[in-house]
Each structure stands twice: as C-alpha cells, then as structure tokens.
Amino acid sequence: MITSGGPRNSEPGTLARLFLDAVATHDKPNALQHKVNSAYQPISSRALADRVRRVAMGMRELGIRAGDHVAIFSENRPEWAIADYACITSGVTDVPLYPNLPPEQAAYILKDSGAVAIFVSDAAQASKITQIRKIVPALKYVITFAEASHPGAEHTLAELESLGTGVDDETHRAAYRAAADAIRPDDVATLIYTSGTTGEPKGVMLTHDNIYSNVMASAVQVPFAGNDTGLSFLPLSHIFERMAGHYLMFHVGCSIAYAESMDTVPVDLQTVRPTLVLSVPRLYEKMYARVLENALAGGAIKSRIFFWARKVAEQWADVTLAGGTPAGVLALKYRIAQKLVFSKLKARTGGQLRYFVSGGAPLSPEINKFFYAAGLVILEGYGLTETSPVIAVNTPKAFRIGTVGKPVPGVEVTIAPDGEVLTRGPHVMKGYYNKPDATRDAIDDDRWFHTGDIGELHDDFLSITDRKKDIIVTAGGKKVAPQPIENAIKTNKYVSQAVVIGDKRKFPAVLVVPNWEQLEKYAKIKNLVWTQRTQLLEMPVIQAKMEKEVLGKLQGLARFETPKKIALLEHDFSIERGELTPTLKVKRRVIDKTYKSVIDSLYAGEHEEVTVG
Description:
The chain is α/β, with parallel strands linked by helices and 613 residues long.
C-alpha cells in the first residue's frame, strides 16, 4: 500500500463551540448578507447569535430536545443557517433535504430519520410535506421561513423566535449555554442522506468532531480569511457547501452572501463581487463554454485575438506550474493577453475573486489549466459525504492540475491493492443510520473507509482515475444510482435492455435496446414501412414512442436523477462482444467505449440553466 497523510492539527471539538467562538471572535457587522427588495442587506454576528438562541429556545418550548432529529427543507438563505445553528447548539441532530426533492423521497428520509419537526422555506415545500404527512407519523411540527403563515405549517419561524423571546432571560440563557457546552465531539450533529448502489438513500451520521476536524484542517490548507466574502449558491444540504461555505467561512470570519437563486448567480457575482466562490465543475465548464462561444461569435479578428491570448497564457502557465518565473517577451505578451481578453473574464466574476474552489465531481484538467492561465485559480479538492467531506485539496502552495491535491492534516489516505482509495481519520463518519451492515461494508476493522473510487498517489498528490462502483456522479456533483432506474425502464414491454449513463456528464441519459417484437407490431399498426431495423429507429414517430415509453416509467425521481434523453440501439448487448459478464451484468466501461459516439451525441449542444457572463 502507498499511504499519505499527516497528524491532526486540532483537538476534538464541536460545531456548537465553533459557532459561539466565531461570534465572539469576529463580531462582524455583515456576517451574512441576503437580498431584500433586490438589494443585499447585512446581518451582524450578534444579531445572528440572538436569533439562533431564540429559535433554539423556541424549539425547546415546543418540546424538542437534545438527540431529536429535525429536518431542513429549504434553499440557501439566512434562515437555513439560523435553523442549523439552533439545532447544533441545542444538541439536536438536523437532517437537511435537497430543496428539489419530490415528496416521495422526502417521505423516505423523514420516516427513516424519525424527524419530529421540519423547517420549510415556503408554501411550495410545505405542500410537499402535506402530501406525505400521513405516512410520517413522527413529524409533529412544520415550521415555515415565510413571513406570513400558510397552509401546511403549524408555525412560522418568527413565531418560534417569539416563543424563545418569551423565555430569553438570564436563567434560560445560562441553560442554553450549558446545553451547548455539554455537547460531546462524538455526538451526531447531522444526518445527511445519500443514495447507495441500490438506490435506497442511506443516512450518513456525521458527528460534531467529524465536521469540526474537517473545518480546522481545511482552515490551515485553504486560504480563507476574515476580509473575504463568499457567494453561497450550492445547496447547503450538500456537505461540500455546508462545511466549506457555511462552517469554515463563518469560523474564519468571512462574510457569506446568499445568491438569490441559481438563475441569478451571474448577476449576484457582479453585485457581491466575492473573493471566494465554491462550486461544482459545471459552473467552470459553462464559463469556459461561454468564453469560447463569445470568441467564435465575435468575428475573425476577435477570434484570432482570443486564441492568440489563450496560447500565450498556456505558455505562461507551463512555465509557472513548472516552478519558473515568466520573463521577457512572454511576460509582456501575457500582460497584453490579460488586458485584451482575460480581464473581461475576471470582470464577470466581480473583479475581486481570489480563489475558486471545486468539488463534488472531477474537473477537466483542460478547463482547470485555462482558468489558471487566465489568472483565476481553481483549487480542486476531493471528498465524500461520508468524509465530512474533504479528504484532499490543492492549495496555493501545493498545486498540481490533474490531481485533487494532498490529504489535509489528520487525514490518512492509502491505495488498496486493487487501486481503491481508502481513508482514515477524524473526518470519517460514525456510520450509516439504521444500517449496521452497510456501515461494516464501508468501514473495515482498521477504520479505513472504502471510497469506491480508484486512485493513485504521487508525491503525496492524489489523483482519482476511475469509479470502482457503478454510482454515477454527474458533472453537477449529484449521485445517481443507475440500477433501480434501469430496472424500472425494463419493466416496459417495449424495452429489452437499458443502461443509464451520465458519469461526469451534465445529466443522466439512457441507452435503450427495444423489444423488437413489440416495437415492430407497433410500427405495423402505424403503417410504417422499413426494410432494416436501423431505418425504423431513425423515424421520428418511433423515437417519440420509445421516449414516451421509457421516460414514462420514471415517476417519483428527483430532477437530477431523471434522464433527459434516450438513444436507441439496434442490437442486444452480448457476452461475445464483451458487453455482458457471464452472469449477464452490463460492463459499463465497455458500453461507454463501444457507444462513445452515440453517447457524445446525446450531450452535444446542450444549454444549461446557469450561465455566467
């Protein structure tokens, strides 16, 4: 085994202590920022702490106690932070839900976790809970962040705060502080549900010290500072944004500004002018695509200038990444390239950006190098929900494109004989909630967590080279379990075989082999004429029919799990062509290679929702 990792740089701690210490240490007038009537308004550290304490006291007045589970079902906003901090300073375990989850998946998480209350952002989220309320009997309270009461919620957050304000005296404040101090590092702080290989969500139990240790280790490696401003738009239900864009930024005294929505990110970048931005690779891919699109659409002269500037910048990057200092003609050309081309790209980020941080899915080395050459550094890291999440990250002092950096302090990484990346340390989860067998499968007797990724270590830099398991990770960082989706599709009489693809892609799609007997019957009914099956597959009426049949079987999936396109294949997968194992399991890598051109065509020319510029 090749092993890497150094000693831990902090004593065990709790997120409650992290929060209370940060309030006392930084006392910022703009700890949080949010849009009110199209303008950003600040919330001070003290105002935040007061609201957190009163909500915590209000929860206690409702009968919610330490050890209870409380869900949060909301988009990013100050109230999300208030609810979270109220839970963690009370010893309550919170259960974040992605705001785009459909009612069926929310129901599973609420039932499995036994949540006694849920915070919702508005009437739309409350409506989802109303649809499933009868099958989640443990749920007693729905608390809305909306200013006015609405159907589906027993209380507004303001009413909960009012309950707390009614008992916010010296005695109760002392009790609140004592409860926060009594929380132990090994207590479970949050229960985050992530899909497993079977598609059934698993609740990842992260302790206070799991996340605390990751915050303290990352604070040493990633140069966040008290004068920084971060723009928060990745879901806070995702552990990457939660640890780095929420706890870590608050710990070091950054000001956190919440984007109004994913659609407003380009405008919010200009308004907030952040110095730090955390994102998944899709943002960088779209920015890169927009730059290329603008260059090519600007005419011959503009296009030539752009490609000249990119070539100069890449030469500059090669010298710099090799440890040299560009000088002479190259340095002059680079200054010109910055002025003519790359200054415009920087302006689109607000003009103040110090660092991008990328996580959640692999980032293309080509795109990473382009941004580096342009003067916009992307610090790529790697981790999982089960590891709180950061295992390794590139830093300004230890930066290597094509890797995910070196392990952070306290985190051990080893490469197993089969190439799987294993990790051990205070960042590794306590286990999967209510799933002891799954926990034993993931964490061995020596406390090594098995990531399911294949990787390599060179000079302590970790590279992720492949997936050991079949879980698809989209370019947006979402995990999709393909087998349940495929099994649902194959129950359709028009389908013989189906393979869900989409790893490192924008969205899931499906390769489908029709059940020819059924499809040809349908074609005859429609009076279609064909001599070869390939002709049939090219007919719009057949394509529309198969799309309706395939996608119509996929009700109840989250948006990010739902395939957007299908491709029809003529022949069944076979053992002879190496596409199936002897037990008839699909060899996904072979399928990806054999049908690469078909798969690439599914993603050609796609436009995503978020654009920058």
